[in-house]
Structures are given as structure tokens and as C-alpha cells.
Amino acid sequence: KPSENMHLIVNKKILILTSLLGVVFIISGFVLGYRVFPNLVEKKVWENVILTENTEQWTNFMKIPFPFQIKVCFFNVSNPDQILQGAKPIVKEVGPYVYDLYRWRNDIEWNDDEISFYEYTSLEFNRKASGKLSDNDLVTILNLPLNALIMTVEQMFPDALETVDSVISIMFGEYDGLFITASVRKLLFSGQIICKDGGDADFAAKIICTQFKNKAKLSRPMQIVDQHIDYAYLRYKNHTHLGRFTINTGQKVRENVWNLVKYENKEYISVWNGQKSICNKIHGSIMFPPFLTKNMTFDLFAEDICRHMPLKYNDTDTVKGIQGYRFTVPKNAFNRPTKDSPDYCYCTNRSPDLNGRRSGCLGDGILDMTTCVGAPIILSFPHLLYADPNYRSSVEGLKPSEQLHSTFATVEPISGAPLQMAKRVQFNMFVRPVLDITFLENVSNSLMPVFWIEESVTLSDDKIDLLKNLLLKNLKKLTIVQWVIIGLGMAAVFVSVALILHQL
Asked: Where found in the cell (predicted)?
């Protein structure tokens, strides 16, 4: 029948056109999902990352809208008198004492697509987060400035040690022993008084105090007040700036956003060996860029320890319902480098090791900070995590835990938003016999932990909701649109082909 055949031909043409339209839908869905939508997302994300004045990201950059937290844990010395007779030090962690850390930037100066600024911080004691602990609590710790003075004189002017021993009580007053018992507030902020009245009570003390004051100008914990020195561990973070930073805004080359260009208007610091060495070179970034991959390594500059900290992908983690990449500082970050290693420049040969001898570089897991802070302070991870066992065994009471004591950052990979971060470092000092110093004659060799600090932040709930609503939910919607289009196309093709085959 001609009319029926014609109807079948028309139906077949419609089915073929429908199947072709379905193919177009499928192709369009894949093009949208793997080309158009990603480009739109990429463009929008970069718009919210690149630093431009009079934008929300600029406001957040100028004043971080939520506080970080500083948690301080002291190593309270349980047997100070026995240590003076040669016993192994026994310590017990006390803390954390929690402080809210506020950050803001000021004194902005533009230069093409770079900006320079001072970063300011202030600290407030958080009573609620500190629980039953109070900053009036008394703790007994190593008398760090006194021991630092002795260690420095021993290395540079050993013949003067006997003189130093005779004027210690004049210089340090009531805190003239190897250990100091004082309140947390005094140790961290109000300060331990050294060289009261400039040491005028004794000629030798005055000479040593004058030299000590010259050192104080280079040491952040030290501050010259009238004629004396105030020594406080965290005062330099309270209502003061951390130095002048110069970073790239990403306006010309977006991939360079947040890159650190200079510190204190210099491309190199003068701390480590080799004026133009990689150790002194200012590089890395101050924040994470967007579109992270698992094979990326980041160098974040930590001005308070005068060096960069590498962060490498370790795992995938979830924070408040958002999945992120967890980057950690590698276990070997403070390991003893070989002489042909590019980071051998961290070996300053300034502090003798546990055995009292200098060999260029200290052992695994610790870093000599003498050239950074102007005192023989030894940096490590908390509880000497990852350090040479000989250091840990010189003291009783350390309990290293990778979960509690490693440094990490969990970052949402598309936006580069930090979901949770924690920088954890410990400050130590070697204690060993010094024959001309009365109270050190009988002590055993040890690496004495003083305190450790965690500087951390977890993205606030309102920022988490903002990230979910503006990015993740929209990404989910785009994915749904993509697969709806692909699904409609596949359905059209499947039905059309099935009907055509049925008519054959």
C-alpha cells in the first residue's frame, strides 16, 4: 500500500532525525561538561582569587575575617634539682594555653602587579578554649636566655666564662639558675628582666650587658626597655608586624598569584650559608592557588623561623563535609642534608651537637636557629617527632605523635581555600656541662625541650557554607545539567534505533 509505505518512510526519517538529534545532545553534553562548564568555573574561580582593590577578596586579604589560634604547650621540668646533679631531665607537657591570633595588612604599596605590605598580628588569651588553664599558671622550664648566654660565650669567648659565672646573679636577678619558674603570661608577654639598670652594679656585668643588648637588637624575643632587657617569647607577635612582604597579585599572570617575591624588600635573606643560596632565596607563596593537583609541592615561607616549609600531598581528607587534599611537611624536612645537597646551606656549624662537638650540621630532625634568632635555639617538630632517637632519649617524658605533632594543610583543590591548617614547631636548647659555670658542672648532655607552638585555623562555618553554596553546589548543578543532556540524547538514540529496527 503506497500511503502506508510513505507513512513508514516518514516515520523512519523522523526516527533517524531524532537519533541524530540525540547524538547532538550527547556530544553537546560532553562538550559542555568537559570544555564549556570547566572554562566558566575556571574563569569565575580566578576572578575570586586574583587580588584587585574594591573586591571581597581584597577586603578579606586586608583583614582576615576570622582569628587563627596559637596553642602553647610548655615542658614543665619535674626534677630540676636532680638535673643539676647529673640526672636525666624529666619533663611533662602542660597546656595548651590558647590565644586568638588576629591578622591584618597595612601600609600597602603597589608596583605594577606586585604589592608590598606589613602584616600585623595581635594575640588575646582565649579562656574558654584553654579550659581550666590560666595564663597565671606557674611553670618550670629551662632558663633559655641565661643558658643561651652561656652557650654563646663558651663558643666565642671561653676565657670569659669564669667572669660570666661571677655576675650571673647581678644580670639575671632572681632568675639566676638553670631553670626558671614563672607565670605563663610573664614568659610569653610581660617578660623576664635581664640586666636591670644596665648591670651598673658591677663593671664586668655592665660590659657583658652592653654586649647582650647588641644581641638583643637581633633577637625577636628580646626588647630593650630603658636600661634593661625584657625577654618574652611571643611579644613580637602582639600588636607588631612580622616584616614587609612583597607578593604577586596575579593580575598579569594569574598562576603567579600569592607568589612571594621579596621579604623586607630583599630577594634574599642573610641568615643561612651562601649569600645567593637556595636557603636564603625568597620564593614560594603565602597561600595556596586554585586548581591543585596531587603532584604539586608548595613552599610556604615562615618568617619566624627564617625559612620555607615544603608541603607535599599526603592524603584526601574531609573537613565539615568538604573534601580536600591534605598536604604535610615531609618527615625529612629537618633531616641532616648531605654535602652535595642543595639545602646543605642550612648547616651553619654554629651550635655543637649533643656530644659537644661541631660537625657542620646537626643530626636528623632538628635545625640550628642561631643565625635566625641570635641565640643557640634548636628547632624541631613537637616532642622531637621524626628526630634522631638519641635526642629523644636524652630526656624522659616525650610522646611524639604524627597526628598531634605534624604540620599540615587541608585545602579544597578547586578554589585553593584552606579548610584546616596547623603549623607546629618546638623550641629546644642543648644543655651540657660547662666547667667554669657552677650550676652546669655536673649536668648530663641533653637536648632540652622548652615549649612548642601550634598556629592553626579551621575555616569558619559561614565560610564553609559560602564555599558550598557558591562553588560546590553550582558545580553539582552543572554536572546534573551535563548528564541530563547526555541522558536525553542517549534515550533519544536508543528509542529511535529500537523503533527503526522494529520496523525492519
From this structure: Cell membrane
d(C-alpha 103, C-alpha 61), whole Å: 9
Q: How would DSSP label each residue in 256-268?
A: GTTBEEEETTBSB
Cα–Cα distance measured from residue 499 to residue 493, given in angstroms and rounded to the nearest whole number:
10
Residue 216 to residue 205: CA distance in whole angstroms? 16
Q: What is the DSSP letter of 351?
A: S
Grid cell locating 111: 608596583
One-letter amino acid for residue 190 of the chain: S
DSSP 164: H
The rounded distance, in Å, linking the Cα atoms of 111 and 268 is 19
The phi and psi torsions of 103 (rounded to 5 degrees) equal -125, 140
Residue type, 430: F
Terminal Cα-to-Cα distance of the chain (whole angstroms)? 16
**In 10 A of CB 165, how many CB atoms?**
18
Q: What angle do CA 177, 179, 185 make, to 5 degrees?
A: 120
Helix (H, G, I), strand (E, B) or coil at 387: coil
- What grid cell was written down for 492? 533519544
**How far is it, in rounded angstroms, from Cα 312 to Cα 333?**
11
CA dihedral defined by 366, 367, 369, 370, rounded to 10 degrees? 100
Q: Is 175 helix (H, G, I), strand (E, B) or coil?
A: coil
Nearest to 172 by CA among 204, 137, 203, 209: 209
Q: Which amino acid is at 494?
A: F
Task: For residues 44 and 37, give the distance between their C-alpha atoms in angstroms, rounded to a whole number.
Answer: 11
Average pLDDT over residues 434-443: 92
Task: Outline where 357-460 has alpha helix (H).
Answer: 370-373, 389-392, 402-405
What's the count of helices (H) and strands (E) in the chain, helices before strands?
14, 18
At 128-166, the pLDDT tens digits run: 999 999 999 999 999 999 999 899 888 888 888 999 899
Buried b (16+ CB within 10 A) or exposed e, 195-219: bbebbeebeebbebbeebbebbeeb
Strands 307-319 and 322-328: antiparallel
Kindly tell me the burial class for residue 254, based on how many C-beta atoms sit within 10 Å of its own C-beta (0-12, 13-18, 19 or more).
Answer: middle
Residue 255 per-residue DSSP state: G
φ/ψ of 432, rounded to 5, equals: -155, 165
